[in-house]
Each structure stands twice: as structure tokens, then as C-alpha cells.
Amino acid sequence: MPQALLGMEVSEIQEILGPEQPEYRARQLYEALYHSQATDLIQITTLPGTLRDRLASNHTVGQPTAERRYESSDGTRRYLLLLDDGRTVETVWMPEQTRDTLCVSSQVGCPVDCKFCMTALMGLERNLTAGEIVGQVLYVARDNGLLGEGSRLNIVMMGMGEPLLNLANVVKATRILVDPQGVGLSEKRITLSTAGIVPKIAELGAEPVRPKLAVSLNASTEEMRQELMPITRKYHLKDLLEACRAFPLRPWEKLTFEYVLLKGVNDTDADARRVVKLLANLNCKVNLIALNPGPGIPFETPEPERVQSFQALVRRAMPCFIRKPRGLDIFAACGQLKRNQG
Ligand code: SAH
Is the distance from CB of 339 to CB of 304 less than 8 angstroms? Predict the structure, then answer.
């Protein structure tokens, strides 16, 4: 099978081209892949024809193709993208007045098993490569004309999968996405969300180029968190908050904590007060997500008044927002990515 170039950095491209090619050739190819977003090697006319033909005999660019695209009444689009090995992965585009947000996947399926999330029902199929993560961005950006001058594109690594269990590929993809010679996005506009894989948080913090960190808190006590998110039996709340406190924030950066509200389970005023206590002294904001329901999920969505009351209590201590559900009608909202045919 031909080898995909997408996901390679300049040094790897240099190796593919061989020592007889000057370094600037590797840079030209790198820029063609990520900056000009070539979809076919034949388009890369900055390279000599002979070199292009030789490359094309055993390599491809490696962008994914769309197997299906689902359109929500709110403008959100959910893509089912086909990968080289026949597996599929989901990516969601959420247009807004002043910006666009792309929600990309880091794994096919997810091993984490949160009780309120539909992706958990798939289990883990495999990690995505850096090229497959960048490929999601390039495909959906091209389909909707999102890159170029004045682009206001935000990337959230909050689709299928647990990004910190695929950290090397997620970080490599981020380097390519923010490199001005690469895709050229702003480092301030890329965020990863984790269920709280504690040892990986310090590893992420040590990376010179990395996404911002969001943490799925989802409960106000250790017991409830372990019930809702079994993986947290291994990664305790106390250690998670310790790792967050030690996380080296950049001057412009805050931590984000996400909190899924489940009716009658973790949505009381007492929960809100405990959240405030847990997060005191952290430079952070909180995003509340009222449960997005789905088949196989044994929880209900709280009433809007309950969500607002929870927000009001948290907001006394720190910024707190309610995440507006996007693409609910096409199974594109948080926790709904499971290749549903909606
Ligand atoms: N594995 C990572 C990335 C997934 S992000 C993580 O756990 O953070 C998805 C976000 O949506 C997480 O904050 C998760 O808690 C939330 N979520 C999952 N299922 C949901 C559902 N059914 N309704 C609303 N939010 C959900």
C-alpha cells in the first residue's frame, strides 16, 4: 500500500526524499502538504516532475475522504471520514457568527468507558496517526472554505477518543497545525479535553508546543466521579487537581473544566458549591454541558432552570459558561459521536 505523507514533519520528509535531495525540497513538499493543502502529489508543481512521479509511485498525500456528511438544522455538519484501513472516524464543524469550531477525534472509538457517553459504547478500535488528526482538519476546512486570510478557526480535540492516551500523535499534529509554514493556526485556538489521565498531564505541560488543557470533571465527589467515569478509579481526583495546579500555564492561558450535568445525579446546588471548593485557587473557567441524551445512555437532561442555578453558584467564584448543544438532531453534540445514522 502506498505510504501517506500527511503527518510527516520536515525531517521525515527529508528521509523519504533521500540524501541526494537538498533540504529545501523537503520544505517545499511540507509547505505544499500543509500550507497549500495539496490533495494530490501531481498538484505540487514546485517540485520537479521526475521527483513528483517517483514520489507518486509509492506515496500519497493521504487526506481522508468523506463517507457521509450529516447536516443539522443549526448549521452544524458531522462528517464520517474514511481512513486508509477502511475504518471511519467523526469530525464536527460548528459555524458561528464570529468564528468556526472544528471538533476532531484522537482515536477511533474510546477506551475510557464514561457512563454518559455514547462513544464509550464502541470501545477502542485504534489510535489515530498525526496525519489522520491533521487530515480531519484539512478535509473539513477545505469542504467549508475555513482556512486562509483572517481565518478564525478553533480546534477542539473533543471528538471520539481520549487525546492523552494518544499524546505523541496529538502533540505532533498540533505542531503541524500551528507551524506558520504548516497549517498556520494560532496556538491559542487549539484545545484538548481529557477525562483526567493524570501522569500524562505533566507530559503535556512539558511540550514546547501544545494544545490548551480542558479537563472533564463531571462530578463533585470522588465517589460519584468513580461511578460515572470508571477510569478515575485509577486516577484520583486529588491527584488530578494536584497535576492541574502544577500545570505550567502560558501568560494568556487558563485551564478549562467541563462538567456534564445529569438530572438528579450531579446537578444540585450542593454539587455546585463543592465544584467551587475543588477548583478554588486554580486559574480556570468552567463549562457546563447539560446531558445530550442518546440510546443506551441511562441518564436524563436537567431542566434549563437547574442548569442556570448551578451556573449562578459557580459564577460567583469563577467564570462559568453553559455550552450550547450543537447538532443534537444529527448526533453531533458532545458525547453523541458513535457513527449514528441520524
Ligand atoms: N475523552 C475526552 C475527550 C472527549 S470530550 C474527555 O473525556 O474529555 C467530550 C466532552 O463531552 C467531555 O467533557 C465529556 O465529559 C462530555 N460528554 C460526554 N458525553 C456527553 C453527553 N452525553 N452529554 C454531554 N456531554 C458529554
Answer: no
Q: Which residues of the chain carry a pLDDT beneath 50?
A: none
Rounded CA separation 310/191 (Å) = 24
Residue 149: is it exposed, middle or buried by C-beta count within 10 angstroms (0-12/13-18/19+)?
exposed
Is 334 tagged catalytic? yes
Task: End-to-end CA distance of the chain: give it in Å, rounded.
Answer: 33
Torsion of CA 216, 218, 220, 225, to 10 degrees: -90
pTM of the shown model = 0.97
Kindly list the distances between the CA atom of residue 202 and the CA atoms of 110, 161, 195, 265, in Å, as whole numbers in the listed order: 22, 19, 14, 31
Handedness of CA 278, 262, 113, 204 (dihedral sign): negative
Gap from CA of 313 to ligand 1 centroid (Å): 22
The closest residue, in CA terms, to atom 20 on ligand 1 is: 335
Q: What is the pLDDT of residues 37-64, one digit of tens each?
A: 999 999 999 999 999 999 999 999 999 9
Could you say which DSSP state residue 195 is in? S
Cα–Cα dist 197/243, whole Å = 10
Task: State the DSSP string of 101-135.
Answer: EEE--SEEE-SS--TT-SGGGG-EEEEPPHHHHHH
In whole angstroms, how far apart are CA 145 and each of 75, 137, 142, 151, 220? 15, 11, 5, 9, 41
Q: Annotated catalytic, 9?
A: no
Rounded to the nearest 10°, the torsion over CA 177, 179, 185, 187 is: 90
Active-site choice (90, 132, 162, 258): 90
